[in-house]
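Hi L.,

You mentioned the student needs an example of a multi-chain input paired with its predicted structure. This one should do, with 733 residues in total across all chains.
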Amino acid sequence: MASTPTDLDALVAQKYQHGFVTDVESDTLPPGLDEDVVRVISKIKREPQFMLDWRLRALRHWQTMANPDWAHLRIAPIDYQSISYYSAPRAKTDGPKSLDEVDPKLLATYEKLGVPLHERARLAGVAVDAVFDSVSVATTFKDKLAKAGVIFCSFSDAVQNHPELIEQYLGSVVPYADNYFATLNSAVFSDGSFVYVPRGVRCPMELSTYFRINAANTGQFERTLIIADEGSHVSYLEGCTAPMRDENQLHAAVVELVALKDANIKYSTVQNWYPGDENGVGGIYNFVTKRGECRGANSRISWTQVETGSAITWKYPSCVLTGDNSVGEFYSVALANHYQQADTGTKMIHIGRNTRSTIVSKGISAGRGQNTYRGLVKVLPSAEGARNFTQCDSLLMGDKCGAHTFPYMEIRNPSAVVEHEATTSKIADDQLFYCRSRGVSEEDAVNMIVNGFCKVVFKELPMEFAVEAQNLLAVSLEGSVG
Amino acid sequence: MLSIRDLHAQIGARKILKGVNLEVKPGEVHAIMGPNGSGKSTLASVLAGRAGYEVTKGTAHYLGDDLLALEPEERARRGVFLAFQYPVEIPGVNNAYLLKAALNAVRKQRGLQELDAFEFLALIKDKMKLMQMDESFLSRGVNEGFSGGEKKRNEILQMAVLEPKLALLDETDSGLDIDALRVVATGVNSLRSPQRAIVMVTHYQRLLDYIEPDFVHVLSDGRILRTGDKSLALELEKRGYDWVKQEASAA
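Structure written out for the whole complex:
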């Protein structure tokens, strides 16, 4: 016979396509973390006193905290003193004023990653704030955005140019003492993105940031803050890749979203950090705190994530629904292949009246991957008329992977209506054979079936990224039929 | 077109085919009949390349090539089609999408240009009319929530679109009421051509009232015991299978 059941076990390993290291001179702090390191970071960034104070408060609090262990993850101990907390490409002057001044090697790197930084970007209507390790090297379309009154810049620039907004909103959704990794980030974060959309403005383009960890042994601690003022709309997309390395790298980011009255924020992530090799060596630890607050009435925050990378993913993009009639949404595709582990989900905290939330989670496990959905729906006594719908589906490929679902509900208002649906299915040999007997190759058949499974989430992504997400999923799953 | 010699196949340690011989020429329609467990569906599965069967002896050549050495998708692209006894549901993947991918895989193999969405829709609409299928079916998941009759009609629709050289129909009549059977049979008959061969596996002579075979074979205990024309099927209907077995063991 041409085909036997053991085919399904035998197929392994599509190589990580973004695994290259750019040879750029960089300024990197020696490994270790203490108050001096925090002071140096703050000083390099010429931060105002309030920032340094905030960082130091976070560091002191962090030093009293313990590494959490509640997630369904196996994590080798992390030595926080062996990590370098700052790395920046060495600037010729004070930083590039235009793309011409950007290191060509850096641009080539973005080219390989497919970041549309040049003319293509403008055609595609995408503004890119490219973060290379810790410092933003190029920001496009600032002018066009500025005309609309939208501020889109690196976090460092925002601290310099809009300190009043930073002081008002930083830590207002994710306080510095929030959790172990968010607190660490608060102490040492080096850069990230900042967005402010003024009252009544519909942001004229998709905003997008590509993050990339390049230097070895650096943790990347970026911080993103998005503020949508009353009646404004913004759609933001982040894409992430990292080079292939044998050691594990730590990525502990914080994203804070604030939606004021009638504002609408759509935040999409396509995450493809290096997942480690097929034996589970190396890969990114992606421990991220993402939270948005619908602070004003009738506001809406929508998270869409496609998580295909990282050795360990630990993140729960959440919505705090404070404003009456506000809406929180979470659409997720998480893939765990080889030895990847993902513990991801969301928290929907209903505080305002008639608040609504929707959770759609699609987990795919292949190889020896472990995929966990962990979600909390919390309805406070004040949330009269709250509604939640949760759907959690798991797709298993092979018999060595795992899918786990931990839905938590805390309902303290009797008028709440909360629905939960969950399914677990397997890509059956029968389904594969059916497609193959119609002339479709095994790989294409798997992609077809997986994409069918994820369709409702992909629908939520901006068009061009939906295609990218599908391709990414195809690459990540190639050779992992089962 | 199809030449099967002394084919032996088993699942695990269980021997199912024990020396099947069969010659099929273009334009012919063959019916393979036999009692439950005689190996009819195994024969169709082995020819289409389903996993889990081990061929221990014998050969099957298709258009001169060693059919058994080809991957299932390769067989399909070269014109072998299996209409499933139990068509599989694939939630979220719409019918049109799978069928277009399948058609383009086959066309590519034949050196034809791949069809775009518009050309594909134009082509499929006629075929759907033939199978009396509603257009809404195109956007539904593959076999998802289909009734038994819809699933079988969908199989024949796929066959009509893919235009195989060798069609294997595995109990296409099972689970169909008389109206659905008529629709399915009309579809199959419309595909009869001097270039195409059809091998139908069935329990009942009923199907043969609608799709008239050139040859009828009785498969029992993994061997073809008797071959005849349509009248053999009528005799089986009347007398059952036992007499064939008795005559075979006597001989």
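You could point out the following to them. Chain A touches chain B through 29 residues (CB under 8 Å). The first strand of chain A starts at residue 26 and ends at 28.

Best wishes,
N.
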